[in-house]
């Protein structure tokens, strides 16, 4: 079990190596949080007030400069009405079996096939789409 102060890193919890599958921290956590914040129509300062995390630190998380603790991730998830497990999986703190299962659909295929989007944008859109599908199922 992860304590609320456990740091999540690319080497896993407490320095133990983890399998770097598609749900592990891959640099998309920060942009995903930023996108979710924008979708919730929240400023960085508003999110900071809701999470009791400084706006400077949240900005650094969104830019991928820091990997937040489990406690901070849960606070962000609560403020954005997201599953804490989803953010933990994106940060590499949850095992693949704890992560929401990927769902392939025509919508995902259309996003992935759109040549106007970068790979980074496609990953974020598919991630957001899956989060909505998980919430609404």
Which descriptors apply to this entry?
single chain; 137 residues; mainly alpha; 434 Repressor (Amino-terminal Domain); two-stranded antiparallel sheet; 7 helices; 3% strand; globular; disordered N terminus
Give a quick precis of the structure.
The protein is mainly α. It contains seven helices and two strands.
Notes on the structure:
Helix 4 (70-79) crosses helix 5 (84-90) and helix 6 (106-113) runs antiparallel to helix 7 (119-135). Strands 1-2 form a two-stranded antiparallel ribbon. A hairpin with a 2-residue loop joins strand 1 (8-9) and strand 2 (12-13). The two termini are 27 Å apart. It has one domain (22-135): lambda repressor-like DNA-binding domains (434 Repressor (Amino-terminal Domain)). With 137 residues, the chain is mainly α. It has helices at 29-39, 44-51, 55-62, 70-79, 84-90, 106-113, 119-135, and strands at residues 8-9, 12-13. The chain has 7 helices and 2 strands; from the N terminus they run E-E-H-H-H-H-H-H-H.
Order of helices and strands: EEHHHHHHH
Computed over alpha carbons, the radius of gyration is 15 Å
Give the CATH topology: 434 Repressor (Amino-terminal Domain)
Question: End-to-end span in angstroms?
Answer: 27 Å
Largest sheet: 2 strands, antiparallel
Number of domains: 1
According to DSSP, the number of beta strands is 2
**Contiguous helical run count:** 7
CATH architecture: Orthogonal Bundle
């Amino acid at each position: 079990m992860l304590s609320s102060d456990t740091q999540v890193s690319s080497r896993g919890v407490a320095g133990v190596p983890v399998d770097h599958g598609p749900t592990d921290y891959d640099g998309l956590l920060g942009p995903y949080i930023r996108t979710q914040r924008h979708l919730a129509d929240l400023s960085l300062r508003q999110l900071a007030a809701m999470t009791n995390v400084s706006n400077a630190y949240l900005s650094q998380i969104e830019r991928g400069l820091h990997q937040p603790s489990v406690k901070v991730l849960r606070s962000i998830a609560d403020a954005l009405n997201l599953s804490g497990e989803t953010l933990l999986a994106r940060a590499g703190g949850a095992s693949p079996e704890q992560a929401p299962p990927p769902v392939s659909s025509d919508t995902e295929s259309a996003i992935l096939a759109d040549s106007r989007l970068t790979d980074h944008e496609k990953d974020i859109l598919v991630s957001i789409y899956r989060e909505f599908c998980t919430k609404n199922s």
